[in-house]
Amino acid sequence: MEQRKIYKTIETVAGKSFESDKALLNEVVNQIVENEEIKVTGARIWKLDPRRKGYSLLFQNGIVQKIPQNFLLTLHENDVFETIAAERTILADETDETLKEKGIFRYSASGVGSKIKIDGKPYFEYLFAVNSNHIDDELRDTLNIVAAVLTAKLKERRISVSQQNLIQGIDRAKQLQKSILPEHEYKFHDYELFGVTIPAEELGGDFFDYLAVGDDEERMAIAVGDAASKGLAAAAEAMYISGAIRMASFFQIKISFFMNRINQLVNKIFADDKFASLFYGEISKDKRGLFLYANAGHNPPIFVCSKTKKVMHLQPTGPLLGPAPHARYETDSVNFLDGDVLVIFSDGITEAANADFEFYEEKRLEKIITENIELSPKEIAYRILDDVNRFSTGDSKYQDDKTLVVIKRKENNA
Fold it and tell me: What is the pTM of this model?
């Protein structure tokens, strides 16, 4: 299941009104077990018990034998809890004999909520554990997102912030955010670019940038990112990531290593419930039109061949930035021929909703790009935005930041 869809699904479920943390967690567990795309056979929530120094079973669901209620897994007998505190999500073989008797032999577990210190060591407040016939890295990435969303929703329940007059502060932040965005139009050797971002609120979590790589000016990077939260918090995360990318662009390092390092920084600097998607690619003077890229959980950009009108999606090459500090990112490539177009976008484009809560979606976006591929990047971008605005006109309350970057290789090059 695509990570962005998982995020939206869990956020919708967890965003309802609940009487307690337990009710919220219980509902999400039930939805996870029932969701056929996630493919788990059983799920459990364990709650940290500081007095008994262990994790006590809170509730369970799925087609596995039931574990006794309030069953305790002690901290001193399970070093794996320290690993979860450091890594957030693990894949492991079950060692507890009682759980093995219940048919649980291999599982995945994620830390949820705040961290509490016991005997000087931090432990997550809750553990979300599942068993499945497919315990693999894809499931790990799925649970990282579930854990991040649950942690965010638990924090929202507990924090009551009084409304204050933040107009001046928000205005300064807005000006700062504008100052780090590049000029909309840009030309680089055989390429023309146009980018634009439209925040849904005063401040947004989307960003894009054009960056010269190294000192020889033979390569240029294009970065498009989307911080998962909204408002001031999202803007702060977006500005940090954008700044980190700018600093890294001075050093000619491999894209995969660059992405690994950005992910580690996001994980270290921001809270457990914060994460972001990032698409990063590099164009160059290469006559073959080589475009190297990495995609950290971002919406797959749409690449359209000018001659054949064939559509290609540049799929993720690694997970979202933040939840897992040791995630790995691969590099992929595509070749621009004359007239070919690449459109990088945030989910505020394809998930723009109308009054009936119908989404714009990628097929409609593909059609607009293909029909207007002969136009300039600026004209293509405006055609897309105009179509999105006309589609979403009405009383739709769900609107997100919208970002577009259109790259086109000029035609008839010498």
Answer: 0.70
21-34 and 137-158 helices, crossing angle to 10°: 150
Element housing 98 (H / E): helix 97-101
The Cα–Cα gap between 235 and 229 comes to 9
Structure tokens at 262: 């950005």
| pLDDT, tens digit (0-9, with 9 covering 90-100), for 93-115 | 888 888 888 888 888 999 999 99
- Placement of tokens 């040791």 in the chain: 326
* Cβ neighbours of 392 (radius 10 Å): 20
Give me 212's structure tokens.
Answer: 């010269």
Reference 196, options 407, 390, 381; nearest CA is: 381
Q: Is the alpha carbon torsion for 350, 352, 354, 357 positive or negative?
A: positive
Give the count of beta carbons closer than 10 Å to the beta carbon of residue 330. 12
> Which stretches does DSSP call E strand in 254-317?
276-284, 290-296, 302-304, 311-313
282 close to 221: Cβ distance less than 8 angstroms: yes
CB 336 within 8 Å of CB 342:
yes
The Cα angle at residue 306 between residues 301 and 312, in degrees rounded to 5: 30
CA distance 351 to 400: 8
* CA gap 16, 33 in Å, rounded: 18
Distance from C-alpha of 25 to C-alpha of 79, rounded to nearest angstrom: 25
